[in-house]
Amino acid sequence: MQRAKSMNKLVLAIGFALFPALSFAATAPEDQNYDIIVVGAGASGMPAALAAEQSGAKVLVLERGRAVGASQFSRGMTGVNTSMQKERGMDVTPQFIYKMMEGYTHQFFNSKLALLEVNNSASTIDWLNKNGADLHLPPENQQFAHVGNEPIIYHMWNSNKSIAALAEKFQQEGGTVMVNTTGRDLIKNEDGTLGGVIAERADGTKVTLHGKAVIIATGGFLGNQKMLDEYGIVGHPMGWLYNDGSGIKMSWKYGAAKKGENITEYHGTGICTPDNRESVIFSDLEPLIRMPTLWVDPVGQRYANEEVVYDNALVANALVPFGGTGWVIYDQATIDHFKTHETGMHDAFAMIRPYLNKKASKQAGPLPQLQELLEQGVKEHSVYKGKTLKDLAAAVGFDDKKFEQQVSDYNGYVKTGVDNQYFKDKKYLLYPVKKGPFYAVNVTAYNLTTIGGIKVNEKLEAIDKHNKPIPGLYAVGNVAGGLYSDSYMLVEGLTAGFATTSGRMAGIYAADWIKSQK
Description:
It is built from 16 helices and 20 strands. It is α/β, with parallel strands linked by helices.
């Protein structure tokens, strides 16, 4: 958790530097009446606010932080049948992507939310670009596992500027953004209708803000350790720690039903220390945990076909049943080879790296500083080293005999080219673990965001325990429950895609509802 706090300080510092031209209100007049109050100014909140404002509503946005765009470091989002895909002659149909989602969830999901995404993502991306978000389609899929198996649906955006561009456009259209302000409670009028939001400023003072409709866009609860523990969510938190579940909890208090509150987006892995801080050398050692070599669980036994490393969702999911952490095992011979040669394997982001950095190779290695980095990892306890396998087992805490047997079995698979345990492809059975000293590199499941909490219908209206919509209350993005069955789907960019699409559509729906009440 300490690393996540440090990460958020970095995000804040960078975020403020990126948006020097934008200024936001520190408060808003309490005697003003708004049509719609949007709580949260991220990838779902700003599209919701802008779409509502452009639909004729008077909109106020509340943002807990000092700047908009807590999600600014996401790289992009799902797009289905977009104009950019059509320009390349690609035929990416809503039916195809919907079937992917249907298959992954075994139909255990809100199909209407899935249809909302696949049928509206193209128009949302065009709309985002029209309003300055600057999305583009890369030449390859983001992850190696998806190359050749799926169409290119991951639309990348200028993550440093896109949300800020929407906020600027929103203000130009007449909307108000109120920063340093947290939504705390929903107001219920004497006649039982929704009356707005009671918010709290950074100095602790309360402010009452009147609105006919409220859109909750507060982005999950990775910043609430009590809720994470309650719902059994593990891993290293990489999300925004301002997302403490306040929007979810005030919606539940108001009468919204719960849905998907125990679901989170495990996505990717990292190298961490025993107290769950991200290693300071993670970025340099990253190739070691992006290849399907020998991976073991906390008791020193293999737990999956290591080819799962090529899909960010699967590699993290595979660790979660074992507590969310494990180890990648190397011997000195392999390390020496990696220092001077390509590894003979792609890493998980092999296809997209050259697009992000023209100097990058699709092959991992050579890694000339590898020995020094490993020794630094030993000092911070993100890497353990043993002269013998027995020594390594003692250092990490494995049963030495069982660990030695597992390594012996794995070496046999490498020798014969046949993995009789988890059936890994022969082309990845390249490196035995024989020559000491030996190394165990920590690998921890990363947790990007929780993805659920408030039960909604196809119009993003919060619904009660009787499945009846709560007039004027909407939930979007990561707080809207029902899209996911038990985990993130293997659809590149779905979290950000659903955030922007659901946000935009809720803004339109809420504005239409306001008009219908007049």
